[in-house]
Predict the structure.
Amino acid sequence: MSDEPAPPAPAEPDQTDRADRSDPSDQLTKLQAELARANELHLRTRAEFANYQKRAERDRTLSSQGIKRDFIKALLPAFDALNLAIRHAEEAAARKSEALAAKEPDPLVEGVRAARDAFEKALAAQGAERIANTGTWDPDLHHPQAVVPNAELPDGTILEEIRPGYKVAGLVARHSEVVVSKRPAEKPKEEKPPQAPPESKGA
């Protein structure tokens, strides 16, 4: 009888290795699921970044428009002063006699008028748009400075524009100051008291 040791028994295969070798379709399914999740995450990240870029661009635009609107609003009083100087000069000229009014235009007034025109072009180049006087009061565009009774016109009819308003990028930088009409309230009709019938003379 031989004393040689018996050969070792073959090792049992690992359960994981056995499962991996025995189910290749499961591996493919898992890889496909992981790939789908990674692709979904990638698409979601791209969409969120695109939305962030849009919000950032919109915020930059709004901020730029707000700065421009404030800048134009700060310049408008100087523009008003030029218009007022021209109006006063024209009113003074109108009060003069025909002989004096027929002389050559005042170079100072013409210079102010030229400055006003250049100022207005500069405002327009920066996006300032004068609010049009449509003849009807709009609370979003006009601030009434006075109300005048008028029975012939509808309520809210603009009778006079005291100071023009302006918009920048569609938003109001300054409201127009206007005078509007209002129909007077109708007085209630007085009812006459009933009169007693005249007494008969033959009674």
The helical segments are 15-22, 24-95, 98-101, 107-125. The mean pLDDT is 80. The first strand starts at residue 128 and ends at 130. The chain is about 50% helix and 15% strand.
